[in-house]
Amino acid sequence: MGGRVTRVFRNFNVENRASREISKEKPMAAPRHRTAQLDAMADSPEIKEEVLRKDDRFLTLLKDVYVESRDPPVRVKDGGGEHLPSKREEKRLTKLGHLEGLDVNKVPKGKISLVEALTLLNNHKLQPQIWTAEKIAAEYSLELKEVNSLLEFFIPFAVQEFPKETKKAITSHKPKKLT
User: Fold this and answer.
1) Bridge-partner residues for 92, per DSSP?
2) 91 - beta bridge partners?
3) Which one, out of 60, 64, 105, 172, has a CA that is 20 to 30 A from the CA of 128?
4) Cβ atoms of 99 and 119 closer than 8 Å
5) How far, CA to CA in Å, does 160 sit from each of 119, 157, 163?
6) 108 beta partners
7) By C-alpha distance, which of 101, 133, 128, 95 is closest to 113?
C-alpha cells in the first residue's frame, strides 16, 4: 500500500520536471590552474627544442665543479666492558631411541628437548632405583638441582583401565522403581 502512494508522488509531473532540467543553462567549468596550462605548453616543439639544446656556458661551469667524497673514519664503539660471548654454545646429540623423528637432533648442553623430558620422566617413574636424579643429570648434561626440581614438580600421566568385573557390577545395578 505504501509503495503505491510513494510511486504516485515520485511520478507526478515527471515530464515537466525533466524538460525544465534539460532546458537549464549548463554550469560553467571551474578555471584551470596555471600548471595545467604549462603542461599543455610542454607539448609544443619550441619548448622541446629549448630543453634538448645544450648551453655552452652551463657546460663550462659544470666542468669546473669537482666533488670529492670521503667516508668518516670508522669508530669502534666501546660497550663499557660488555663483550659478546666469543665461545659458541656446545651442543649434544639427543638420546631419543625410537622417537627420533618427533624431535630436534641437537640440543644445547644444559637443556633437554620435550621428547627427552617425557622419556626421562617416564623412565624415572617406572624404575626410580635405576634412573636416579644423579644418573639423569649425568646422562643429559643437566644440573642436579634442576633435575631434582623436574622430578618433583612434573609427573607424566598414567593411563588406568578398570577391570571388567567393576564395569559389570556398575551396569548390572538396577535402579529402584518408585511406586
Assistant:
1) 107
2) 108
3) 105
4) yes
5) 19, 10, 10
6) 91
7) 95
pLDDT number for residue 70:
86
Beta partners for residue 107, in sequence order: 92
Amino acid identity, position 41: M
Q: What are 72-123's pLDDT values in tens digits?
A: 887 766 655 555 555 566 666 666 555 555 556 677 888 888 888 888 898 8
Grid coordinates representing 83 are 663483550
H or E element that contains 50: helix 45-52
* Bridge partners (DSSP) listed for residue 106: 93
pLDDT higher than 70, residue 37: no
